[in-house]
Task: inverse folding
């Protein structure tokens, strides 16, 4: 494999992925994801947009300290303050990068920036030169490149490189391009920008037409050597190019795509599940690579073929992306040592204290559930590791429901260290549970989504509930899992409220309850 056939993976799950409505992450969440991306072998982690908020700045600063191998990148507009703040946020990183950008399309320049071509070029020169004072690794992006006038685009790229940009990113900002067109754009840039050999060409494709991965791969064929992507394809609107799809396409079809990445593909499934759990965004069952059905076969013809030879209907192995046999040999008689070994097999490195807590929850589940699966353990682990610093904690729930009589719930919570208990009625059992929560934690949030999925098969499967609340024009997604659907519902609602509590600087009206 030639050196110039290496494709850098630039992951922007923590920045562009978080811009998905409702996908806000806490600082602790971002650190967990960043560590997972670092372990995977991601080349560059775009940790956030530091000038956007104090929380974004702090998370980038902490990620910079925690990440051991990946380059930590901060995004900045072509503005002095943006770049100065970005430089400070990554100052502790072992390897750092500033990613600065400005739009180059007529549409954006006229209506958004209100700048002419000369003014845009002045901003490019000054912003890249300033960024270079904070780090030797500077990336420059021409926002809305796919709709920019070619001659002007070439001039801007040339200027950015002359000003010190090591990487030139070509974004399909609104997902407008089609593969052969985007491929030609990369080829034209290579042919018409005189100093393009002094930089790496990157691409950042959005999925508005469902073509982000295809556009990225066509760009690689034409000479791009960095791809910007996200776990599970998260991102604004229809999302970004999916990292797992690009990486596995290059690995699986290496005969026609002779490129390589540094990604440890066996960690893909684990990281996908972590991101899904933290953001509250479910992965659709038929999603390529990481969907629940990606390696499932129901058709009789397919099953027959699989039994005879797996390659008849599988072009990659489940193990290659970190999946294993789903049947779990552990049960209620299993010991803590065997359980700890199983956690390691699943790719988790967990402290003794958290292992003890998860093992206790596992034993409780084993007493209630006939068949146990790896998915059950994963749900227990992720339920524990994402619920740090919770101000509102679930203790117990009793619900009376059925076809006759009132639907009544009795709920006990711990709110900032104070244990409170309340009962309430509702139009149904879930409504009664949520009414209890709203009595104990008064809030103005509006329920916009309530969704239940089974984690595994069988009538005793754990339920995974997703709740989306709207508060002050922002979405907050919460998840909860339990063998009891109503308990899972309460946990999901509380997970969402905890997000609101932290993101809105404790604006929920809970202090009055603690008097």
Result:
């Amino acid at each position: 494999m030639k050196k110039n056939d290496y494709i850098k993976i630039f992951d922007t799950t923590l920045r562009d992925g978080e811009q998905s409505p409702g996908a806000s992450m806490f600082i602790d969440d971002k650190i967990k994801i960043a560590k997972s991306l670092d372990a995977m072998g991601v080349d560059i982690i775009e940790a956030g947009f530091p000038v956007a908020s104090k929380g974004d700045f702090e998370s980038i600063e902490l990620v910079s300290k925690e990440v051991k191998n990946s380059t930590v990148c901060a995004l900045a507009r072509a503005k002095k303050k943006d770049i100065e703040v970005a430089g400070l946020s990554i100052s502790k990183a072992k390897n750092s990068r500033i990613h600065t950008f400005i739009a180059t399309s007529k549409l954006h320049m006229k209506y958004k920036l209100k700048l002419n071509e000369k003014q845009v070029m002045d901003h490019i020169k000054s912003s890249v030169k300033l960024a270079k004072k904070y780090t030797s690794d500077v990336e420059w992006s021409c926002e809305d490149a796919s709709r920019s006038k070619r001659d002007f685009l070439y001039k801007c790229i040339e200027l950015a490189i002359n000003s010190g940009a090591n990487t030139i990113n070509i974004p399909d900002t609104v997902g407008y391009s089609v593969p052969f067109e985007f491929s030609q754009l990369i080829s034209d840039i290579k042919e018409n920008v005189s100093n393009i050999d002094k930089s790496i060409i990157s691409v950042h494709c959005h999925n508005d037409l469902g073509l982000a991965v295809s556009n990225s791969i066509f760009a690689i064929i034409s000479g791009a050597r960095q791809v910007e992507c996200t776990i599970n394809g998260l991102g604004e609107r229809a999302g970004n190019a999916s990292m797992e799809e690009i990486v596995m396409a290059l690995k699986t079809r290496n005969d026609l795509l002779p490129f390589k990445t540094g990604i440890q593909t066996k960690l893909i499934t684990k990281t996908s599940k972590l991101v899904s759990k933290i953001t509250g965004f479910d992965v659709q069952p038929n999603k390529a690579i990481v969907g629940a059905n990606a390696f499932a076969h129901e058709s009789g013809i397919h099953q027959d073929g699989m039994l005879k030879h797996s390659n008849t209907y599988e072009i990659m192995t489940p193990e290659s992306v970190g999946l294993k046999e789903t049947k779990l040999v552990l049960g209620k008689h299993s010991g803590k040592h065997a359980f700890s070994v199983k956690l390691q097999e699943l790719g988790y490195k967990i402290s003794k204290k958290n292992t003890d807590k998860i093992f206790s929850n596992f034993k409780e589940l084993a007493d209630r559930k006939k068949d146990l699966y790896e998915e059950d353990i994963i749900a227990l682990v992720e339920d524990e590791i994402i619920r740090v610093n919770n101000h509102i904690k679930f203790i117990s729930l009793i619900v009376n429901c059925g076809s006759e009589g009132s639907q009544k719930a009795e709920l006990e919570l711990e709110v900032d260290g104070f244990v409170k208990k309340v009962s309430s009625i509702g139009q149904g059992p879930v409504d009664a549970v949520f009414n209890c929560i709203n009595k104990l934690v008064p809030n103005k949030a509006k329920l916009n989504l309530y969704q239940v999925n089974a984690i595994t098969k069988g009538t005793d499967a754990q339920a995974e509930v997703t709740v989306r609340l709207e508060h002050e024009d922002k979405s907050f997604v919460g998840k909860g899992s339990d063998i009891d659907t109503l308990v899972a519902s309460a946990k999901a609602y509380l997970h969402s409220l905890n997000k609101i509590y932290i993101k809105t600087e404790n604006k929920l009206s809970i202090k009055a309850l603690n008097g």
